Amino acid sequence: MKLQTAIDRVSLEDAIRLAQVLNGKTDILEMGTSLVKDYGNLAIEKIRQVLTESELLVDIKTIDEGAYEFQQGYFYGGDILTVMGAASYDTLKACYEVSQEKGKTMLIDLLEVNNAKIEQILEFEEAIFCLHHSIDRKDKLDATASVAEFRKNFPQVKRIAIAGGIDLEQAKELAEQGLTEIVIVGSKITKSQEPAKAVETFMEAIHQ
Q1: Coil, helix or strand for 174?
Q2: What is the pLDDT of residues 37-48, one digit of tens each?
Q3: How far is residue 5's CA from residue 27's CA, in Å, rounded to a whole number?
Q4: Where is 50: in which H helix or E strand?
């Protein structure tokens, strides 16, 4: 299982500093949506320059203009780009085609997406399907139960990620379960006193 560390709601300077600190320590570094909205595509380039040993996911949350947004996201240095599962089939298809053409990866954010819609997009077999528990929700995510239910409903999906308040214990349980490709952790790492040490702790936990 891979660890994706999400950087969100900080200044670009702090994001670049964190990227330098976590470079090569986390499998994937996520440039969160707030950074994209605050600083734009040129910020992807700046983070890419210091991130030489980890993959870069840019959480652009595309909902329309799929081909253009994905072309731009990859041009500026993203390895993995995100599209909302709630987008139209045509938008998802356009994003997938660009990702395949560029030899890159598409992650489908399944936030508030029902099973009927997921059934319609199963053909994007190289995409990562991300179970996403909204930060605005008041209830707590049961990570392993969510993954187990998703795998039961959609056994053909090869690549699963999960996000939404994941802590160290949940990350361990997901690793033991063995169904998830990527576990996404944000503030439990980036808001800690020593992010590099926190990443190390998570990496050890998921690779035991």
Answers
A1: helix
A2: 999 999 999 999
A3: 8
A4: helix 41-50
Q: How far apart are CA 190 and CA 64, in angstroms?
A: 30
Strands, E assignment, 46-188: 55-62, 80-84, 105-109, 128-132, 160-163, 182-185
206 to each of 29, 96, 107, 134, 150, how far by Cα in Å?
16, 29, 21, 23, 20
Tens digit of each residue's pLDDT (9 = 90 or more) over 79-135: 999 999 999 999 999 999 999 999 999 999 999 999 999 999 999 999 999 998 766
Q: How far apart are CA 139 and CA 131, in angstroms?
A: 15
Task: Tell me whether residue 136 is exposed, middle or buried, using C-beta atoms within 10 angstroms of its C-beta: 0 to 12, 13 to 18, 19 or more.
Answer: exposed
Amino acid at residue number 57: L
SS3 103: coil
Whole-angstrom distance, CA of residue 198 vs CA of residue 106: 27
**How far is Cα 74 from Cα 119, in angstroms, rounded to an integer?**
27
